[in-house]
Amino acid sequence: MEISSAIPYPTIGAVICWYSSNIGVLLFNKYLLSNYGFAYPVFLTLCHMTACSFFSYVAVYFMSVVPFQTIKSKSQLMKIVGLSVVFCFSVVCGNISLKYIPVSFNQAIGATTPFFTAIFAYLVNRKREAWVTYGTLVPVVAGVVIASGSEPSFHLFGFLICVSATAARAFKSVLQGVLLSSEGEKLNSMNLLMYMAPIAMVVLLPATLLMEQDVIWITVNLARNDVRIVWLLLFSSSLSYFVNLTNFLVTKCTSALTLQVLGNAKGAVAVVVSILVFKNPISTVGMMGYALTVIGVLLYGEAKKRYTQASETRTGY
């Protein structure tokens, strides 16, 4: 292969950092919430949003990683607030689910995001896909059903809350496309995170005080006996920001289709790594179910690409 046709090193580096930060934050959250026994997912999410607020402001406003974009109207602000609430809900539910189910099962459920995206795209803006596209969602859902039925560590509440997190992520992506679709209101992902994270903090603070009373004092007392908790929280919170940063960099360096393929592969890598780290039991049937889901997601992406190309050809674009 000629050097000119090789994948650029910055792109390879961005993908490696994206994989590492994404899988890392999953493993750290699982360790904190389950293995370590720090059972406070709402407070953990608050820590993550605090870190995202700080790092986003520094990256955008001081380091000029991306051009600074201002909020231009009260209407735009209210839309961002709405997105922040949905974003909060998805992250909190995702963290809560890690208390009850393994990372591998969490990722299997998360792979069904295209299924919920297709549903919300139709409900919100009546966007229809080709029937073959909807057909590819059958193995996506079937794979999770198979994996759920044979999951040795299945927990009903953990399963339901993880499904809620997955649905909320899909709803946020659809809602973001609708609410911030006009040219005057579009924000790149880094600026959007900079505005959403502080709003999420405002939402999460009273929720933490209400749902996890005395968690701050408990954390302080815990830190006196084991200072590792401070470093674990700081590292996990920092990783939560770098997941967003590296996702933006990979998006910038690759195409939407490449990003989707890389995302599917990332989920598979996360499953393998989590099993090696936590040694949670997993059945052969469960692995086959997850593989079926990944295959369905790949088919869904290919079907959507072909449908989009066919539509563009018919309309002459």
Automatic annotation (TrEMBL):
Pfam families: TPT. It comes from Acacia crassicarpa. GO terms for cellular component: membrane. The keyword Membrane applies. The chain crosses the membrane at residues 12-32, 38-68, 80-98, 104-124, 131-148, 154-171, 192-209, 229-250, 257-278, 284-301. Residues 15-300 form the Sugar phosphate transporter domain. Signal peptide: none annotated. It is a multi-pass membrane protein. This is Sugar phosphate transporter domain-containing protein. The lineage of its organism: Eukaryota, Viridiplantae, Streptophyta, Embryophyta, Tracheophyta. Keywords: Membrane, Transmembrane, Transmembrane helix.
